[in-house]
Amino acid sequence: TWDDTDVIAQLFIDRMGNAYGQDVWGKSAADLFEMNLADVEVTMHSRSSNLYGVIDNDDFFQYLGGLNLAVTYASGGYTPDSYVTNLREVGDEGIQTLGDFISDELYARYFNPEWIEGMQNHGYAGAREMKDFVENLWGLQVTNPELIPDWVWDRVYETYINNPEMSEWLKQSENSFAYQSMIARMLEVNRKVDANGDPYWDADEETINTLVSEYAESVAENGAACCHHTCGNPLLDEYIQGMMSVPGIVSEEIADKYRKTMAEVKKRETPADTTVTEEKNSNWRRYQDKQSGSGNETIDARSGFGTNVDQAPEAAEGGEGENKEESDYVEGYEMQDEIDPESEDTGSFSFSGSDILGLVIVILIVGAIYIGFRRRSS
């Protein structure tokens, strides 16, 4: 979908286009949602926390980025102006463009030596924050292509990979998988192209060769990280295998270790595929039909992505239709009341030690009150 943002936009509309009100709750209204988006000129998000930013989590590119793509799709190509309402400092609230907000965060955090040092003090958890930043930066770029130019990725490379002190810290055993994931994502940003056929990051040859070398060495020495864009990405593996065949990029020893490691990974059990037939009345289905003419989608059985989220409520609830017979089938567990034989009522009362002690205390208190009244009256 990175090479066709209309697919992401249509998915956003399909997932977010639900109506809620007094007499309606969660009813699909994707067509109405799309009609309203067609006239949107400005999109906004807010940030009131100093703890969370734009690139340290996936919320911004999921919601604001997804909305921007949806507006562009619904309007026929118009890209809305996108802003962030900055509420972080009381009395100094303001509105910034999304681009300015991203730039401020890049320099305040991810390119800031003091922030990096603070993350290093937290060991593997700090390395994970660095890895998440790279991943979220990619999400922001796909959903807001014009906001992340090449210089940003160049700076990420110089800060985290081409900096010997930084890269050595990331190569430590507890951080090695985070480092491997960061390199893999940067290679993917270069390898993948946008809707115009241009790479998302047009890195120079020396940079790419260094990334390939670092990635191959990381896999050979530490094993595969097996995040979703490494082990689960055969295209990246093919790309690395091809690059390693170029003399001078990696040693033959590293190349052999890499191949053996990835061969072991491929031997692991892979999940069975399942086929899901989507309802033809959904926007997602209409878009897929328009693009490919196919009515089926093959998905990973263990994945939530691609499931039949667009099924009409009537069909999902067992209403009328050709799938009525299947929808009547319910699978689950039946709850039954059971009584422990040892705890069944035998007809006689039983007391625990605490019950008896409590009863004695109550009797003593009542007796003391009675004696007190007797003395007072006499």
What key attributes describe this structure?
single chain, 378 residues, two-stranded antiparallel ribbon, 16 helices, three-stranded mixed sheet, extended, mainly alpha
Question: Gist?
Answer:
This is Cobaltochelatase subunit CobN. With about 375 residues, the protein is mostly helical.
The side-by-side strand order for the widest beta sheet comes to 3-4-5
Unreliable stretches, pLDDT < 50, 5 or more residues?
272-287, 293-327
Question: Kindly, what is the distance between the CA atoms of the first and last residues, rounded to a whole number of angstroms?
Answer: 95 Å
Q: What is the number of E strands? A: 7
Strand percent estimate: 5-15%
Give a short account of the largest sheet.
3 strands, mixed
- The overall pLDDT, averaged over residues, is 83
Radius of gyration: 30 Å
- What structural class do helix, strand and pairing data support? mainly alpha
Helix content estimate: 40-55%
Along the chain, the helix and strand elements come as HEEHEHEEHHHHHHHHHEHEHHH
Shape, per Cα inertia axes: extended
